[in-house]
Amino acid sequence: MTQTIPAPFPALRLRRTRATGWSRALHREHILTPADLIWPLFVTEGAGVEEPIPSLPGVSRWSVDGIVARAKEAVAQGIPVLALFPNTQPERRSEDGAEALNPDNLMCRAIRAIKDACGDDIGVLTDVALDPYTSHGQDGLIDDAGYVLNDATVEVLVGQSLNQAAAGADIIAPSDMMDGRIGTIRQALEAENHHNVQIMSYAAKYASAFYGPFRDAVGSRGLLKGNKKTYQMDPANAEEALREVAVDLAEGADSVMVKPGLPYLDIAIRVKQQFGVPVFAYQVSGEYAMIEAAVAAGAADRDTMVLETLLAFKRAGCSGVLTYHALHAARLMNG
Fold first, then answer.
1. Tell me: the pLDDT tens digits for 144-201?
2. Rounded to a whole number, what is the largest CA-CA distance in the chain?
3. Which of 228, 259, 272, 314 is catalytic?
4. Which of 66, 75, 274, 331 has the maximal Cβ count within 10 Å?
C-alpha cells in the first residue's frame, strides 16, 4: 500500500482527529458488530440440564432444550451462527468413534432442534473430528502404536459430515487436520446434493497449550493418550500454514480458520493478505479462561478487554470470530 508523505508538525497534528468522540467514530478503520461473532456451545444429554464447566467460568454444557434457548438468545442479539460441540457420554465412546455416524447422536439432535425452533434465522456450524467420540481422545483412528491414521480417518469424517448435513448443518467445520479431507468431504456433499452446505476448514490449527479447558468441556482431557503433534501444526511454523490454507482452498473450502486466535494474529493477517478469502479465528478456551482469570484477579475490566481483543481479530483481517464471549459481547454492542 502506498504511503503518503506526511506534512511536518504543526501542519499535521495526528491528535486532531482524536480530539472528540464524533471524530474518532468518523475516522475509525474497523468496526465490530454482533454479526462478526460465532458462539461455540457445548451440548450434553438430558433435559433441563446446565452443567457449569469449572475451567471455563461462565460457560456451561446444555441439554438440547437449553441449546435451543441459547439459539433464540443469539437470534435476538444478532449473532448469526452457533458452533456446536458434543459432550459424548463415556459408554458411547469407542476406539473407532462410531457414535459420530449415529444419525440420532447429540450433535444431530441439537442441529434438528435448533432448525425446528429458529429455521434460517441462525446458522449452525458443526465440528467434524473424532475426538469427542473416541475412547482414546485422538481426532482420528489409531494404529497399534497410537499413530493417527490419515486415510482411514478421512473415510469416517466423510460419513460424519454427511450425517451432520442430513440433520441440517449449514457449515461443516473439519477440525481434525487430516490431509485430503476437505476435497473428499466436498465431493461427498456434492454427490448427496448438499450443494449449499459450506465448509469452513480449520486450515491452520496449531498443537497449542491453549486447548485444555475445551477438552474438559467435551470430556476428552483425561482420555487423551499421547499428544496431537503428528497432525496439528508446530507453533513455530508460519509458511506451512499458508501451504495448508492453499491446499484446503484448492480442495473446496469456502472459508478458512486460524486456531488459536490472539497468539496467531500474524497467521491470520498473512492468510488474508495472500489469499483474500474469508478468514475466521477461534478465540479458544485458554484465551477465554485467561481473560476471566484476569477479571477475577482485579487486573482487567471484562467489558473493555473482551471488545478490544475481538476488535484485534477484525484489524487482522478476520471476517468473524468464534468466541465464548459472543453473547456478552453482543449485548455490550447492542447496548
1. 999 999 999 999 999 999 999 999 999 999 999 999 999 999 999 999 999 999 999 9
2. 72
3. 259
4. 66
Judge contact between 83 and 57, C-beta under 8 A.
Answer: no
Nearest one of 324, 320, 319, 318 to 306, comparing CA atoms: 324
At residue 1, the pLDDT reads 59
By CB neighbour count within 10 A (0-12 exposed, 13-18 middle, 19+ buried), where does 172 fall? buried
Read off the pLDDT band of 4 (50, 70, 90).
confident
% of the chain surpassing 90 pLDDT: 94
C-alpha cell at 292: 476471566
What is the helix (H) or strand (E) element at residue 123, kind and residue range? strand 123-128
Task: Tell me the C-alpha distance between 203 and 156, whole Å.
Answer: 19
CA dist list (Å): 310 to 24, 144, 210, 227, 229: 19, 43, 17, 29, 28
H or E element at residue 38: strand 37-43
| Contact yes or no for 99/129 (Cβ under 8 A) | no
Residue 147, classified by CB atoms within 10 Å of its CB into exposed (0-12), middle (13-18) or buried (19+), is middle
Cβ(237)–Cβ(267) below 8 Å: no
Given the residues 205, 228, 272, 314, the one annotated as active site: 205
Catalytic (active site) residue 225: no
**Whole-prediction pTM:** 0.95
For the chain, what is the mean pLDDT? 96
Active-site residue, 228 included: no
Which residue bears the cell 473439519? 174
pLDDT at 5: 79
Cell of 300: 482487567
